[in-house]
Amino acid sequence: MQTSTPTLHQLVFEHLPDAVYLIDPQTSNILDCNAAALQQVGLPRKEVVQHSVLSLQKDVLGIEHWASIAQAIRQAQGQFVFIGSHRHHSGAEVPVEVATSALVHEGCEYFVSVARDISRRLALEQDLNNRDVQLRYALTEASDGLWDWNLPTNEVFFSPQLKRMLGYGPHEMQPTLETWATNVHPDDASRVRRALQEHIKGLRERYEAEYRLRNRNGHYLWVHDRGRVCERDAQGQPTRVVGMVQNITDRKHAEQALQMQASYDALTGLLNRRECEHILQQQLQLCQQQNLPLGLCLFDLDHFKDINDRFGHQAGDEVLRKVAREIQAQVRATDSLFRWGGEEFLLVSAGAPCGHVLRCAQRLRMRLEELDWPEVPGLKGITCSFGVAMFPEHGQQVDELFLAADSALYRAKAQGRNRVELAVLA
């Protein structure tokens, strides 16, 4: 006797990874099931087919209960979904998410149930629930996800939210630092790595960076990433860093659209960051061609957040405007001054030697420290921290120079603020 060749539909049915049951709504008997269903309960086909759902489903209590469930399935729009447990042949319980829909074929009503084993999902949720207070706090505060880096093993825990943000399933993404590092945009990678390492070495109070991160489809998302060392060994060396990631793509796109509308900062009247990137590249190329030095001075207001908190944002805006006016009056006509962002400013001095740039930074620091503030009653004064980098000593490219100046600025803040620091030689 020849056996018939399985149809494509039969092959698909048998090879589906989730358990599928065809059920008689009236009797609750299982009319058919696929291989995954048999494997899920550990029984041969003869002990499943033509047996009642009640013998497998732990949470259906008798035929009357089944009748009420059947009515709910018929009334459901689309699928009727519930979480329950199947009895395994070994006596164990298999947690399942069951999605059931009703269909009519040749005048007969049937139920089709797809039962997905959610053991791993529940175990993962339990693992998250068991994590310490710091991680639970991070999960509450950051809806887009978190990471937990074990420095001695280089293993990284990526939360399900973070994986979902990047388009991955809960069991994908290798838990290693390399998984993250290889997906950071090449133009951002060195800056982000430096910020992270400087925090680990104690040069920054915390790690914080905005950069582009590649998702599963190869597209880049803008993210705001921040973290902090939360565990150390007996020698005081960092052993664990916990961080939170926020998707800021929409905000970045909106910012970029606004930046494209003008070259000047609306608050201070200084050239803005977009124009700075263009001018700085031009001036660096000119200095390279003529073998001239170029100074980069990055500085920001110390404790500016306190001014906003104490006196309000309107007062903070007035402080930024006055600082911009004072600095603009002190620098050379050939220098370029920019509002880099927030309370940060950038001064570019083409053709100026290192000594001149450092003296200029010190003069600006003292001038700002001496200012009176009748515009903001109660404000006794402000100070600024400065980081200076020079071409060609501290870098040959714009990104290298900016990274060097940024590191010098953070060093100035770490050493007490209200000071000028020169970048260290690479």
TrEMBL record:
Chain ranges of the PAS domain: 5-54, 131-203
GO MF terms held by the record: catalytic activity
Domain of life: Bacteria
Residue ranges occupied by any PAC domain in the UniProt entry: 207-260
One Pfam family this sequence matches: PAS_3
Phylogenetic classification of the source organism: Bacteria, Pseudomonadati, Pseudomonadota, Betaproteobacteria, Burkholderiales
Stretches assigned to the GGDEF domain: 292-425
Organism from which the protein derives: Giesbergeria anulus
Name by which UniProt lists this protein: PAS domain S-box-containing protein/diguanylate cyclase (GGDEF) domain-containing protein
